[in-house]
Amino acid sequence: MTDAIRPLIAGNWKMNGLKSSFGEFEAMLAGAGDLAGKADLLVCPPATLVGAFADRARGGKVAVGAQDCHPKPSGAHTGDLAAEMFADLGAVAIIVGHSERRADHGETDALVRQKAEAAWRVGLTAIVCIGETREQRDAGKTLDICGTQLKGSLPDGATSANLVVAYEPVWAIGTGLTPTAKDVEDVHRFIRGVLTDRFKGEGEKVRILYGGSVKPSNAAELMAVANVNGALVGGASLKASDFLAIAAGC
Ligand SMILES: O=C(CO)COP(=O)(O)O
User: Fold this and answer.
1) What's the CA gap between 18 and 25, in Å, rounded?
2) Which of 7, 30, 41, 42 could in theory staple to 62 by disulfide, Cβ–Cβ 3.0 to 4.6 A?
3) Residue 203 belongs to a domain with what CATH number?
4) Is the pLDDT of residue 3 over 80?
């Protein structure tokens, strides 16, 4: 980690986890103390577990977040969940605009922006995800795509407290493939430039996470890249030993 920004290691459990996963979360809480304050830790379980995890985590060294929210605070939206509900449960952050939601649910940049604003409405941090597909990378459009997503997905008024940006190349998610350190560096430098231009005095401090096949074996190398301020971890965040090993690599 080359920057003075405190790293964040965030786990996105996606649609994984049952009541029986509680022990794994307990193990994360138990092991977090050994990290000597190297990084902030956040686990975003499925919505069904946010309340129980947040209750258990109170006062501990692992915070709890959600994976999505509806833009509205309440209303006739069957099956949807409001940011207010996650704040009520004790969540501190909400992931918005993950590529799986953009693909599975047709989420646009404009909707992602509204969801980030919903998180802010209740004082939560929005973790806004961006990233290019394989085809877009091969066509040399990575920075264009990331620039467009940032412009459309980030609300005005971002601060280092209310915003985290996660760069997740779609082709690296769940595939075991990762970009080279140089490629990660190029994209993160670009994101930093966009943030510092737009959010004067804050953009230089906003955490930019890398996500996509982060594992204990590659975490240290990725975390050492300039402007990489942590990781958004999918599969490897389901096991306490892997998740803690990734955090130890900061
Ligand atoms: O999508 C991700 C985190 O949001 C990354 O998932 P994997 O770590 O499983 O590749």
Assistant:
1) 11
2) 41
3) 3.20.20.70
4) no
